[in-house]
From TrEMBL:
Organism: Tistlia consotensis USBA 355
A single BP term in Gene Ontology: L-threonine catabolic process
Residue ranges that the Swiss-Prot or TrEMBL entry lists as coiled coil: none
GO molecular function, one term: threonine deaminase activity
Catalytic activity: L-serine = pyruvate + NH4(+)
Cofactor(s) listed: pyridoxal 5'-phosphate
Name of one Pfam family that matches: PALP
Protein name: Threonine dehydratase
Family named by the database record: Belongs to the serine/threonine dehydratase family.
Amino acid sequence: MTQTVTIDDIRRAAGEIAGQVVRTPTVEARRLGELIGCELWLKLENLQFTGSFKDRGSLVKLLSLTAAERKRGVIAMSAGNHAQGVAYHAGRLGIPATIVMPVFAPFTKVSRTRALGAKVVLAGDTLDASAEAGREIAAREGLVWVHPYDDPLIVAGQGTIGLELMEDRPELDCVVVPIGGGGLIGGIATAVKAIRPETEMVGVEAELFPSMKQVLRGEQPRAGGTTLADGIAVKTPGRITREIVRALVADILLVSETELEAAVSALVELQKVVAEGAGAAGVAALLAQPERFRGRRVATVICGGNIDVRLLSGVLNRALVRDGRLVRLRVSIIDQPGQLAKLAQVIGETGGNIVEVVHQRLFADVPAKQADIDVIVETRNQEHVQEIIQGLKQGGFASRVLSTRSIDGGA
């Protein structure tokens, strides 16, 4: 294979962007590491100004433009993070920027991109369709195309993360990196393997978008669906990047939507780190397959933190439900004064905290003198839920759990 990006390219890129992007920290994730059974380090690219690693490659590419190209302006296609990286640095450098985003791009990323001064065009229901629209606009208006991953300059920019990782933790046994188009892992793998060849590189894709894994197997990429990891929801990986991955990456793991949600939640709760779905993909793989990493010195890249706060709230609440720390109970009562107070007293005495109560009188299949009460209760864990159900039974209330994870309460 002819190497399209070298360690010298990455070192050159590091010199060019020094002082213009955040030199992000590599922090130990001790609590997560204990769960997995490894020594775990997190490279916090979510601390970049635009919230993702895309600041790096975008700047390297923009700095390479001629004066004439800068005057004409640039165009990029992105679901959000590349868009913000290009928009931010183009604005700093006085370069007009147009960003084509898919119609499903998170509102937070669209609004932030516009706030950075770029012209945003929403087109296409997939990244590939958005890319096609972007190339048409580029050709029509004479704009410079800034590809999100399949460009040696972009790859070199992302590779500066690998340089920093090796400076901070030169003894790493394994580096786990999310894969979308492959620019991030391509750059990091080039740097890491040049400095420490024995360090294993492992990629992670969303189960719904396993395009890099499929391409490397010689299969036609087949991907699609709604994923929490929209930042790596790429149907066609880069041609440059796939060859780098083929040469330098030992394995590609796939993670489910449930595993991605669990990782986002675990990062917030255990490490106080906010990551979007793509940014948490590496942690998702580690938590899903701890035996593969047990006893090793591992780093993963939290490549982005641009998650909509409403989505984050939903993810965290769903995690509470899965863990049995937020439960919805349906309780049958006699429809007369004092029953609701008695019900609340029983739940309170067992240590539960009621956060919502809804009467089901008209639309439930119950006798006229009875009612069903739906009660959302904060609890400690699954065992505590059982204690509350038992307390309700002793207090004369039949109850059952309506949460997504069924717990056998009974009457």
